[in-house]
Design brief:
The longest helix is centred in the middle third of the chain and has 29 residues, at about 100-130. The chain contains eight helices and seven strands, in the order βαβαβαβαβαβαααβ. It is of the alpha/beta class. It has helices spanning about 20-30, 40-55, 70-75, 100-130, 150-170, 190-195, 195-205, 220-225, and strands at about 10-15, 35-40, 55-60, 85, 130-135, 175-180, 235-240. About 40% of the residues lie in helices and about 15% in strands. The protein has a single domain (about 10-185, about 215-235), classed as 3-Layer(aba) Sandwich (Rossmann fold), CATH 3.40.50.720. It has a seven-stranded parallel β-sheet, with helices on both faces. The termini are far apart. The structure holds nicotinamide-adenine-dinucleotide. Nicotinamide-adenine-dinucleotide binds near residues 39, 114 and 184.
Length: about 250
């Protein structure tokens, strides 16, 4: 069975790099017309350009998910999206006793309020169009905790619960809302940490004894984005090599 997204319009937030850019590439490869959104318009324009040169359908636009006006401007004049991947997020690491309240608010603003605001804007278009699929990128840290990530873990747990609440409210509009919870995925940003002893010890606690690769997320993403998951909504899908079930 080959999953095709021909004729579908998809939006990916935080698509300037990391997981978001990869998600945009995967959706485009499956045939979707993808809009790459991020704060830096020049970066996503260049990535959309590269996709078009590879004969994919892509465009780009500036979007800061913490800006209500920015979100309204972004959606104004754009046709409804069939698929939204709510990916933009920040880490905001730090010891809880030392964390400034404003820094905590900043994490919640991007990771939770941003996810809600973009889902609402996209959801209004989906309601008019008769339905759609929203994939919220949460994290295994929304389901378990680790040190020095209080704001991040709390915000991602809230994304998991928001996903369920929106799934309940929007099922009547044909809108499915699911959460994808990646485990530790190897990217250029974290490879230095995973080369350290602490990083290697962490990997030993993952039942599959390896980090995730970007490609490990492709199948779950395409499943949730496409009609192949037509009867899934409010689901929380972990992609973590078994990390959540590691032994105590
Ligand atoms: P990253 O820092 O490489 O990418 C985050 C993206 O979000 C960037 O493009 C950034 O510009 C964008 N962004 C940040 N604030 C924004 C804002 N206000 N408006 C618009 N865009 C904004 O990180 P990543 O590892 O690619 O993470 C992507 C998502 O996946 C995040 O939600 C993250 O929490 C989640 N995640 C990542 C991992 C992992 O191992 N990398 C694991 C679990 C969950």
């Amino acid at each position: 069975m080959r999953i095709t997204l021909e004729g579908k319009r998809a939006l990916v937030t935080g698509a300037s790099g990391g997981l978001g850019l990869h998600f945009a590439q995967v959706l485009a490869e499956a045939g979707a017309e993808v809009t790459l959104a991020a704060r830096r318009a020049d970066v996503v324009e260049a990535e959309a350009d590269a996709l078009r040169r590879a004969r994919r359908k892509a465009d780009a636009g500036a979007l800061d998910v913490t800006s209500g006006d920015g979100i309204a401007d972004f959606f104004a004049g754009r046709p409804a999206f069939d698929i939204l991947v709510n990916n933009a997020g920040i880490a905001g690491e730090g010891a809880a006793l030392d964390m400034e309240t404003d820094a905590f608010r900043g994490v919640v603003d991007t990771n939770l309020t941003g996810v809600f605001a973009v889902a609402q804007a996209a959801g209004r278009g989906m309601r008019e169009a008769g339905g759609g699929s929203i994939v919220n990128i949460a994290s295994i840290l929304g389901l378990r905790v680790a040190g020095h990530v209080a704001a991040y873990a709390a915000s991602k747990a809230a994304v998991v619960q928001l996903t369920k609440a929106l799934a309940l409210e929007w099922a009547r509009h044909g809108i499915r809302v699911n959460a994808l919870c990646p485990g530790y995925i190897e990217t250029p940003i974290n490879e230095a940490f995973f080369a350290t002893e602490a990083g290697k010890a962490l990997v030993r606690r993952i039942p599959q004894r390896r980090l995730g690769r970007l490609a490990d997320l492709d199948g779950p993403l395409l499943l949730l984005a496409s009609e192949h998951s037509a009867y899934m909504t409010g689901a929380v899908v972990a992609v973590d090599g078994g990390h959540l079930v590691s032994g105590l």
